[in-house]
Design goal:
Strand order of the largest sheet: 1-2-3-7-6-5-4
Mean pLDDT: 83
Shape: globular
Number of helices: 5
Order of helices and strands: HEHEEHEEEEHH
Number of strands: 7
Radius of gyration: 24 Å
Largest sheet: 7 strands, antiparallel
Distance between the termini: 79 Å
């Protein structure tokens, strides 16, 4: 009888501890959920000036008329490369991105519209990576990710362009 009572008490104790542990884990998840959305990007390499312009022009067919360019390689959750070509103005950047949309299927998958917090982008796949391109102000932007996680892509694109963090890398 004492043995049964002891097993009953031990069983209740274990169950209570599991409930408490679950509650602590759930509370910690809610408490720190915002911190999981922080984006950490380390700059690996930056190319600016004529070298960047030549790199951008070398991967485009025909005339890709741009004023300047910058290419930034990041290490985050995988490798990320951001190509930015500066156009004469916002409307020229938009036109160049739309021309890319018409021709990109020759080298990558067909583009799919993807929107991130109001920023209209196109997503394509190719060369073992996920790519996004779009116009942003007077810029034509191409971003390639080695990491296939599209939720992560959204965080990075919002961080760099929605929150304006890309400015510190291109100035």
């Amino acid at each position: 009888m004492a043995s049964n009572l002891l097993n009953f008490v031990n069983g209740k104790y274990v169950a209570l501890m599991l409930i408490l542990l679950g509650t602590v884990i759930a509370a910690a998840g809610f408490l720190f959920q915002g911190s999981s959305e922080k984006v950490r990007l380390d700059v690996v390499k930056t190319v600016k000036g004529e070298d960047a312009v030549e790199m951008v022009k070398s991967i485009h067919l025909g005339n890709f008329d741009i004023k300047s360019a910058v290419i930034v390689d990041f290490k985050g959750a995988g490798d990320i490369r951001v190509w930015i070509a500066f156009a004469e103005n916002d409307s020229v950047a938009y036109e160049l991105a739309e021309k890319m949309k018409e021709k990109v299927h020759l080298y990558f998958s067909s583009p799919v519209d993807v929107e991130f917090n109001g920023l209209k982008t196109y997503r394509v796949f190719g060369n073992g990576r996920t790519h996004y391109f779009f116009s942003f102000q007077d810029q034509v932007v191409w971003i390639e990710f080695s990491n296939p996680d599209q939720d992560y892509h959204a965080l990075v694109i919002d961080h760099l362009f929605g929150k304006g963090e890309m400015e510190k890398y291109i100035k």
